[in-house]
Amino acid sequence: MRGKNSDLQNQRIRQYFLDAGKEVIEKKGITDFSTRTVAQLAGYTSATTYNYFRDAKQLLSLSLVHAVAPYFKSVQQTLRADEPSHLTWLKVWRKYAAISFKEPEIYQYVFFSEHTHEVLQETSTYYTIFNDDALVSDPNADKIFADTIEARDAIWKGLLADAKVVASEEDLDHLMIFVHALVTGMGQQIIAEDSIKYQDQLNLFMNYLIDYLLAHTSIKESKEELLKLAMAD
């Protein structure tokens, strides 16, 4: 019994640290992240950190996974919905944009940076702290948590291939390249434009995405239909 209680206490303390780490990242940014700042916010000394985390890099990576965990959950829920594959694909990217446009530094760092592998390799550790058996056991879990763009793309390419709306593997590759460019390039320019409100940013992103999709696939719905369906929960 004592061992079980000790494990629960250790898990609880790690959660305190990661809640604090997430708060530091969201309020001060990744560059101002430090074990001392996180430990103080969690109510512990910085030396205590190393009783629960391998090093400062692991604490940062796990805190970042904690920050993007709602996106992982939304992907799982969207993939499980009984909807046409191309619509599922659009909704996944709409949800990515909806969340990442509010926290662009975090999402760029986690999914599209030189640090992606370092961060996402900690997802298995994260889900031993924050239990989510339904997500971890999901057939797509390995791809959802994948630490390379190519592995994550396998889900989306599979959806469009299943829908039989893309003529060739080359067209699928081009579509993936466009989405990445939209997210990391034009998407960042949209966010940086202070005169555009958040909802308008999201609408603009989805308009770009749907325009390209319709131009390079055999999807029959109109742009207006797709936009309405993709923006609906």
From TrEMBL:
- Enumerate the PROSITE patterns for this protein: HTH_TETR_2
Where is the DNA-binding region? 34-53
Highest taxon of the lineage: Bacteria
Q: Which UniProt keywords apply?
A: DNA-binding
Checking Gene3D superfamilies in the record gives:
Tetracycline Repressor, domain 2 (1.10.357.10)
Q: Name one Pfam family in it.
A: TetR_N
Which Gene Ontology molecular function entries are recorded, alphabetically?
Answer: DNA binding
Its protein name is HTH tetR-type domain-containing protein
